[in-house]
Amino acid sequence: MVEFCIYFNNFNVANCFMKRVCKFINLLGGILVNISTNSFFSVLIAVKKEHKAKLKNYLRERIAETILVYYKRDYILSKLNFKRGNNFYMQIYLEALCCFDSNLDKEIILKKLKLKKHFYFDSFIDFVLGVLKNKWNELITIANDNVIYTYSDDNLLELIKFIISNLEHRCYAVNVFSKKDCYMICGIKGEKIDDFLIENNIFYDEKHLFASLVVLNPKKIIFHTDNKKSSVVDKLNSFFSKRVEICK
User: Fold this and answer.
1) Are 212 and 185 in contact (CB under 8 A)?
2) Residue 149 per-residue DSSP state
């Protein structure tokens, strides 16, 4: 058997990492165990030797994604020096900031990530990712220097549209279905969206729906609804303009 042990300082991050990798480990016929001590939350993974290379590549990918999903977001939000409430446009603006340049960030992480038998998640972030932190600090500085534009929804909308225009397209097209009490996103053929920045495909409010659409930034959005004059339609047209197609 080949073993890897990954140590986390944060239980929630460790738990979410386990949920991300458990299906793949099961497919390999491996073992996945979590161990808690006073110092760390450890995730122990063991598979047969013939699966070592496949597992190692897979874990590197998942570690990089976990850093971007949890650490990058917390880091950026902790450095912003302006008030952040529950305003809809502010929440979408923050989501856009946190997912900016994620593909390049992941490439930088993977270049520096040398996975050994024992891997300390938080130590890797603290001591190895200085270049990435400097890159994020540049984005934070720009956001803080332009804080005046966050004082009104109209200005925030323009900021959001500017950031969206500079985000990578993480998929070509999506279908969005408006249900009685929720919204559902799926691929162009009805398939589930497979993207590490998107945890769910069903949303119970507009904020989470639009946050996910901004992250995916598709080239085309097909919105299925019986109400073509709803606030969601207005916001879709405001954020994504010519990319939106409304269907019944």
Assistant:
1) yes
2) G
State how far the Cα of 219 lies from the Cα of 174, in Å rounded to an integer: 9
CA dihedral over 199, 71, 92, 244, signed as positive or negative: negative
Radius of gyration of the chain (CA): 20
pLDDT digits (tens, 9 = 90+) for 40-83: 899 999 999 999 999 999 999 999 999 998 899 899 999 998 77
**How far out from the chain centre does Cα 32 lie?**
24
Q: Where are the alpha helices (DSSP H) in 146-246?
A: 153-165, 206-216, 231-240
pLDDT of 124-180, one tens digit each? Answer: 998 888 889 999 999 999 999 988 888 888 888 898 898 898 888 988 999 999 988
For residue 174, what are the β-bridge partners? Answer: 187, 221
End-to-end Cα separation, the chain, in angstroms = 54
Task: List the one residue out of 182, 242, 248 whose CA is nearest residue 218.
Answer: 242
Task: Give the orientation angle of helix 11-27 with respect to helix 52-66, to 10 degrees.
Answer: 150
Question: Three-class SS of residue 96?
Answer: helix
CA distance 198 to 195: 6
Alpha-carbon gap, residue 247 to 225, rounded angstroms: 6
| Residue where the block lists tokens 């900031």 | 97
**Structural domains of the chain, with CATH:** 2-79+100-144 (no CATH), 169-247 (3.30.420)
In this prediction the pTM is: 0.84
> Is beta strand 202-203 parallel, antiparallel or unpaired with respect to 183-187?
antiparallel
